[in-house]
Amino acid sequence: MDKNGDVVPIGVKVIIRTEEAKDELKIEIINTSNPPASRIATIDSEVIMKSKNIGAFAFSNDGWMNSGKGTIIFEEDRLYINIDLENESYDNWSIFEGCKCFKKI
After folding, report:
1. Angstrom distance (rounded) from CA 73 to CA 54
2. Is 18 part of any domain?
């Protein structure tokens, strides 16, 4: 559960939001560890589209004082997200690093 008492799924969750009026794309990535620690790292960032299906984003704090940048590749039924941590806090948790593939639902 998070600080509000809501149940939080374990693993990585990706939320893509678009605002057509502003022609913006935003990404939210949440990484939750297994209980009993249930650590949560979150980034919420604007995506700058580099081409029709490739975007870039940056973040200054994932909730654990880690920062970095990432890319997102949109394919027919999948998303590929690659994150590079540039400033690691070496704390007990962080948003993930490297490339992960997500199936669209």
Report:
1. 5
2. yes
Q: What residue numbers bound the domain in which 28 lies?
A: 11-103
Task: Report angle CA 71, 77, 81 to the nearest 5 degrees.
Answer: 15
Average pLDDT (55-65) is: 95
**pTM attached to this predicted model:** 0.83
User: Based on the structure, what is the number of domains in the chain?
Assistant: 1
Determine what percent of the chain is predicted with pLDDT higher than 90.
54
- Residue 37 included in any domain: yes
Characterize 49-79 residue by residue with b for buried, 16 or more Cβ atoms within 10 angstroms of its Cβ, and e for exposed: eeeeeebebebeebbbebbbebbbebeeeeb
- Averaged pLDDT score across all residues of the chain: 86
CB atoms within 10 A of CB 101: 10
What value does the mean pLDDT take over residues 63-88?
A: 94
Q: Is residue 4 part of a domain?
A: no
User: Distance between CA 18 and CA 8 in Å, rounded?
Assistant: 23
